[in-house]
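Internal tracking record. Fields below are filled automatically when a chain is submitted to the structure queue. Please do not edit lines marked as system-generated. If the sequence contains nonstandard residues, flag them in the REMARKS field before resubmitting.
Queue: standard
Priority: normal
Entity type: single polypeptide chain
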Amino acid sequence: MRILVVGGGYVGMYTALRLQRKLKPELRRGEAEIVVISPDPYMTYQPFLPEAAAGSISPRHVVVPLRRVLDHCRIVVGEVTAIDHAERTASFTTLATDEQGSGPLDLAYDELVLAPGSVSRTLPIPGLADHGIGFKTVEEAIGLRNHVIEQMDIASSTRDPAVRDAALTFVFVGGGYAGVEALGELEDMARYAARYYHNIKPGDMKWILVEASGRILPEVGEEMGKYTVRELRRRNIDVRLETRLDTCEDRVAVLSDGARFPTRTVVWTAGVKPSPLLAATDLPLTERGRLRCTPSLTVDGAPHAWAAGDAAAVPDVTAEQPGAECAPNAQHAVRQAKVLGDNIAASLRDKPLQEYRHKYVGSVASLGLHKGVAHVYGRKLKGYPAWFMHRVYHLSRVPTVNRKSRVLAEWTLSGLFKREIVSLGSLEHPRAEFELAAGGGRPKES
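SYSTEM-GENERATED OUTPUT FOLLOWS
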């Protein structure tokens, strides 16, 4: 019995972890095999990306190595390109197939767990593909940190006021969790770093948040969303609601309200969409491109196929209105994975399945060091209490005792010592120095 898990994110890792515990006798006897195919050999705990970008947490502690956690599973670092569930086969590529120049490989399976997650939802905005920066992976988070500090270095070393102004202008598009938390943490970090520049003051920097709707952070409620807007504006952050980015060509951000900002930094966090892999399957999809699922986390009308998380449209059986679906967030994904693992094990043993039911308890968001908002179990918190709750909640949710201990140790040390404000942008092009020395020409970006 081969169980194929596509994706190594929240759902993929937690489901495989649950399965290797539930199916321990079958795995030991060789009666079952769990194969996890993931583009990366690690799971990224995305709520910690803003703190990693701000330097509060080391990047390696934001990720969880799959091979260490899933020691009874077969881990394949690759990308699934197509799935033929009627034939129970999946086509995938690996780094080796790319090197060999061979085509995709085929893998047969008995049970399928489809959890490829989501990708950034972009729009055909002129200049966005050339100049935009995402904020969904740990590489993007660290790259953005290096970029912000590099812009401060540029502004500090130039006498051209136009170059300086563009370098110190930072535009964030999207008022959800990713955009608000990334902006809050990075502005806090840059404000602290400015004290070490002789000619840059916090007031010299322009931070702009662009949101197409009339509110930000809808998950924490309208009242806390309005508080967040007031808090950000109190920090001289320009929050523009009901505004869109029209173009960012030639490094000039033009907004729908007519404002123009010469800038070298446009961070795009305006939502996500289901993985393109779903369109390359023969499984039923909803109008929004997500897998049509049942409350038991099976794919509707496709026996032996399971799904959860961002890629799955799971009915919310706790909602009052009919037809409601679970929100595609981490809170649901982690809990769905537990039920998903139990249901797969139950189906293999001919036992009844359970429905996924979890009432959304609330949300917490960080707005920088010692600043936050929260709406949990009907209670509204702001400032330090909300920030503290944010840290406690996510520390309890990050996988493995190893990661919990390391993150807690880093938080403790960061409270005792000063922040690190070093840019390690050269890590993104490690061969540049050698290429320059060996060839004598301009180093290539690689």
